[in-house]
Every structure is written in C-alpha cells, then in structure tokens.
C-alpha cells in the first residue's frame, strides 16, 4: 500500500501491483491489438487503483437504480393509474415501453457521446435527465394531466441511454484486472436494484383507494420522494463522480489511453463500429447474447395479473424487463395465487442480483471468459427446460425455486456478456461494445416476444417455453463456436513479460 495525494489535496489510499494474467488462452492479435500490447509494455513501476473508485462505483449504482426504479413506476400500479387518470391500459404500458422505443435508435448516438466526452459528462447528462423527468412528474398530479406525467417519463427514458453502456466502461477505467469483472457486475447490479425498488415501493406508497383525492395525495408523495432522492444524487454526482483516476489501473487501460492520445492511432466512431462488426467472434457473441437476453424478455412479458388481454404480451420490453417476472402462466396452474406471482417476481430479481455478482467474482478469480460464458449460458438453457416441465407439479414452492434458478443464471449472464465483449474487442471502447450488445438484446427481445406470444395464446405455455428452450440450445452452440481471443488479457500478458525481462 502507498499514499498518493488526490486532485483535491486529500491523502488517498491506493493499492500498487504489477499486472498479471491468469489466462492460458491462445491469443492471435491483429495489428491494432499488437500496437496496444506494445503500448502496454512500456516501462513503469506498477499500476495503482485508487480507493475513490468505490465511491464512483457506488454513486453509479444509485444513479442507475434511480432511473430503473422509474421505469416500472406506473405499470406496477396499473389499475390505480388507469382509474386516477381515466386512461386505458395501453397508455400505462407505454410508460414502460417508451424506455425501449427511445433506447434503440439512440444506442449509436449514445455510444458516440460516451466515447467523445467520457464517463463524467455522460453520467451527469443522465442524472440531470433523470432528475428533470422526476420533477416534471411532480406537477402531473391531476386527473387531466397524464400527458405531463408521460413527458416526464419520456425524459427519464431518454436519460437511460446515458446509463446502460456505462458499467463495463467504468469498470475498465477505474478497476484493476483482478476486479474489473466484479465491478462490471456491481454496475449491472444497480439496474436490478432499481427494478427491485420499483417493484416494491409504488404499491406501498400508493395503495388502492376508493377516493381519487387520496390517490392523488399518495401519487404526489411518491413523485416528491423520487424527485428529492434524484436531486440529492445529482448534487453528489456533480461533486464526487470523476471521469478517470490520475493514473491508469492496468496495462490494458494504459494502452487504451495511449492509443487515444496518439493522433495517428485515433479512429473515428464509424471506423470503431466497422472494426466491431467485422470481428467474427464478437458477431457470434452478439447473436448468442441477443438470444439469451431476448428469451428472458419474451418469458417476462406476462407481468401484471390484471393484464389478461393479448396486447399485454408486448408490455415492458426494456433492458430492465428481464429482471421482473410475474408469470401470468403461474396463475394457470395455481389459481388464486396472485400474491405468489408478485413474490416470485421479487425472488427472481434478488436471485438475478446475486447471480450478477457471483458471475463477476468468478471471472475475476479465474479469468476464464469463454469457459464462464459457456457454463452460464448452458445452465440458463438447462434452467429453462427445468422451469418448463415443473410448473404442473402442484407445489408452488417448486416454481419459486425453478424460476429463481432461471433468474440467477440468465441475469448472471449480463455482466459476463459485457466483459467477454470487452475482451474480444479491445482496444475498442467498452461503451460501444456494450451498446451493441444491448441493441442485440432489444432486437431479439421484440422478435421473441411476438413469437412467444403467438405460441402461448395459440398452443399453450409448454410449446411456447419449449421453443424458447430450443433457442437457448442454439445460443449455447453459438457460444461454443465463439473463439477465445482475449485481447485485453493479451495486453496484460505482454506487459508482464516485458517487465519480467527488464
């Protein structure tokens, strides 16, 4: 341990180490990656990780949670919202669907923005949008002002673009090679935390009441509470969320920063996209990642028990929807267990949060990205088969167990996919690869939801679930065919070799 003065003048604890790699994967670097490895092999005393990295990560977790919580703010109390504002279910559905509708076309501009201005400015733009949207909702508490509430929700949805691609980028910029995957998983954890809060908090703050005046007062309290919390986060982000540490935490990040600073090595955003889209292994990952998360989206769409009409099957298609599973299908086998469907949904959220963290820790301990990705994917597929054929056992506890198991592995796959993508595409920006992975998930989610819905209503839940399980088999095979070209690890290996020869 040593002490280093931060930019503010305070003495800050740092850890110093020589970067190493535990990977035994064979690497076949391209020309650009070779230059990155040479840059990483420059002489130095070691790499430092700063204690403030945890403050930056924790701030991001709460920032992400504040946005994700508002995604489900209306749909979870659908019957109350429709009665208070005098609107149809479809309009409430749109308060969650707007997240997806706005995210898909803004993925590329958002990735470009992150690449150009960095973490701090991107995060500040996001928290300002989240806070502004929350405050607009405060002024929408009147049965005739639903459009005001929807405008606020749309602004919060726009801010989501400045969140979803950040976890992998933040982890790479601030954390060392033995913590970067865990940091990514914690970043993803923030989004899930927000969904969990959004699942529990609105029904508590806005209980069903016969009096519209009472409902209005409760809505006002909820909107003020969310706006106040996001305002506090805005202040904290302005003062404490930093762009990057004074020195890079790893050889890979040092190489990336050096390439960014060398004019002859800089590439345009479009060129970076071209590099990614001509990377065979990354294309395979795009397909397998999209299939996995898309399947989870599809089986997560029959959410609120009051939504029995067919049109509800396209509800809540956003990145967060994968973490909220209140299965209408459960009511088919267990009539009268509406309370259990909500508890199953919460169980899956909590299991998914645990799965994300465990997956990140496993990656940091083993550095076996291909093997871990394949294992988690295969277990997701197995979990889907088990879930499909255990629904009719007559024991609701079995559904709790199998659904939570499915959530654990499918949600645990999210940070694994981000980190494997960062390894396969180094030194391209992590935000760009994450954005493309999210785009793939959204696209497959739409297609699979329509397909799943058609099968579900025409033939029943078993054929629909079997079809999704077959898709996961295809995804597992694609994952097995993906090469283990760990370019970021290659930079670490080159650095360690160069230092050992000095």
Protein described:
Helices cover 71% and strands 3% of the residues. The chain has 18 helices and 3 strands. Helix 4 runs antiparallel to helix 16 (430-459) and helix 11 packs antiparallel against helix 17. It comes from Drosophila rubida.
Give a short synopsis of this structure.
The chain has helices at residues 31-40, 52-71, 78-85, 89-138, 146-159, 166-174, 180-205, 212-240, 251-261, 269-277, 280-298, 328-333, 338-366, 369-388, 396-425, 430-459, 461-481, 487-501, and strands at 2-5, 11-17, 47-50. By secondary structure, the protein is mostly helical.
Question: How are the SSEs placed, and which strands pair?
Answer:
Blueprint: E1 2-5, E2 11-17, H1 31-40, E3 47-50, H2 52-71, H3 78-85, H4 89-138, H5 146-159, H6 166-174, H7 180-205, H8 212-240, H9 251-261, H10 269-277, H11 280-298, H12 328-333, H13 338-366, H14 369-388, H15 396-425, H16 430-459, H17 461-481, H18 487-501
Antiparallel strand pairs: 1-2, 2-3
Helix pairs in contact: 1-9, 1-18, 2-4, 2-7, 2-8, 3-4, 4-5, 4-8, 4-16, 6-7, 7-13, 7-15, 11-15, 11-16, 11-17, 13-15, 14-15, 14-17, 15-16, 16-17
């Amino acid at each position: 341990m040593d002490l280093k003065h931060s930019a503010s003048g305070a003495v800050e604890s740092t850890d110093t180490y020589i970067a190493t790699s535990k990977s035994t994967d064979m690497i076949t670097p391209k020309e650009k990656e070779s230059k990155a490895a040479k840059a990483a092999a420059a002489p130095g005393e070691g790499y430092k990780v700063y204690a403030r990295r945890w403050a930056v990560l924790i701030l991001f977790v709460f920032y992400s949670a504040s946005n994700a919580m508002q995604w489900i703010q209306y749909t979870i109390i659908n019957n109350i919202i429709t009665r208070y504002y005098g609107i149809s279910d479809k309009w409430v559905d749109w308060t969650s669907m707007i997240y997806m509708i706005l995210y898909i076309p803004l993925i590329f501009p958002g990735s470009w923005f992150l690449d150009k201005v960095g973490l701090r400015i991107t995060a500040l733009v996001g928290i300002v949008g989240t806070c502004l949207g929350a405050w607009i909702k405060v002024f929408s508490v009147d049965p005739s002002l639903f459009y005001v509430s929807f405008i606020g929700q749309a602004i919060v949805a726009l801010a989501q673009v400045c969140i979803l691609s950040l976890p992998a980028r933040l982890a790479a910029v601030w954390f060392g090679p033995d913590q970067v995957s865990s940091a990514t998983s914690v970043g993803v954890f923030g989004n899930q935390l927000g969904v969990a809060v959004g699942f529990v908090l609105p029904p508590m703050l806005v209980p069903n009441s016969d009096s519209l005046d009472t409902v209005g007062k409760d809505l006002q309290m909820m909107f003020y509470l969310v706006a106040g919390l996001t305002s506090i986060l805005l202040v904290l982000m302005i003062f404490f969320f930093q762009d990057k540490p004074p020195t890079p935490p790893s050889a890979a990040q040092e190489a990336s920063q050096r390439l960014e600073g060398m004019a002859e090595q800089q590439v345009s955003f479009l060129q970076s996209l071209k590099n990614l889209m001509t990377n065979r292994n990354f294309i395979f990952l795009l397909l397998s990642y999209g299939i996995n998360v898309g399947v989870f989206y599809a089986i997560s769409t029959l959410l609120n028990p009051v939504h029995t009409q067919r049109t509800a099957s396209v509800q809540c298609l956003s990145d967060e929807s994968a973490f909220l599973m209140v299965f209408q299908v459960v009511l088919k086998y267990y009539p009268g267990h509406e309370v259990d469907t909500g508890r199953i949904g919460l169980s899956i959220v909590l299991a998914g949060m645990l799965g994300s963290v465990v997956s990140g820790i496993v990656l940091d301990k083993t550095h076996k990205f291909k093997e871990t990705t394949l294992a988690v994917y295969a277990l997701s597929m197995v979990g889907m088969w088990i879930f499909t054929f255990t629904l009719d056992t007559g024991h609701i506890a079995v559904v709790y167990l199998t659904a939570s198991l499915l959530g654990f592995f499918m949600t645990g796959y999210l940070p694994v996919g981000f980190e494997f993508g960062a390894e396969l595409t180094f030194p391209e920006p992590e935000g760009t690869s994450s954005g493309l992975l999210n785009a793939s998930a959204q696209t497959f989610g739409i297609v699979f939801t329509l397909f799943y819905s058609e099968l579900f209503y025409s033939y029943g839940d078993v054929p629909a679930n079997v079809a999704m399980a077959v898709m996961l088999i295809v995804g597992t095979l694609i994952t097995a065919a993906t090469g283990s070209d760990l370019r970021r690890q290659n930079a670490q290996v080159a650095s360690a070799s160069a230092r050992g020869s000095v």
